[in-house]
Design a protein that fits this description.
binds zinc ion; mainly alpha; single chain; 44% helix
């Protein structure tokens, strides 16, 4: 339909203009979130809690190109903040718990959720960067951009 009308089909998450094969964004993010290589879904993505492997041991895909940096932590704050604040306000409005009871519920839950989500969220961010050919994942020189004035 689009081609009949002469309209170029827009492909999100791919590199339509550069002729690169579009990598499956959601599949890559899901594989990353499960701690697997975004390319093959088999090899391990993490060597430690948040330390990613340099290379997939199964398919050999180079994974050290990612620049997840602080993004996983910011995303975890957003996710946990919404869950904990929303649940706190709902419980506060519908119960008569004391402040100490609230502290006993929400502080451990906040810590547990943050620890539990950090690795999956980082894996999903790495999957996203891989799927979108970001940083060195597209084969470009993987150097830090020069700062202005240097
Ligand atoms: Zn792999």
């Amino acid at each position: 339909m689009a081609s009949e009308l002469g309209i170029q089909e827009q492909v999100f998450g791919g590199e339509h203009h550069s002729g690169r094969v579009a990598r499956p964004l959601w599949t890559a993010m899901k594989r990353g979130a499960l701690g697997r290589c975004p390319h093959c879904g088999e090899g391990k993505l993490f060597a430690g809690f948040t330390k990613s492997v340099d290379k997939c041991s199964v398919c050999g895909e180079e994974l050290h190109h990612h620049r997840a940096d602080d993004l996983p932590a910011y995303l975890v704050i957003v996710i946990v903040g919404h869950i904990v604040l929303g649940s706190f306000m709902a419980l506060e409005a519908t119960s008569t718990l004391s402040m100490w009871q609230h502290i006993a519920i929400w502080v451990p839950l906040t810590i547990a959720l943050s620890v539990a989500l950090l690795q999956p969220v980082k894996g999903a961010v790495i999957g996203l960067q891989w799927a979108l050919y970001m940083h060195g994942f597209g084969g470009e020189k993987d150097a830090t951009e020069p700062r202005p004035g240097t």
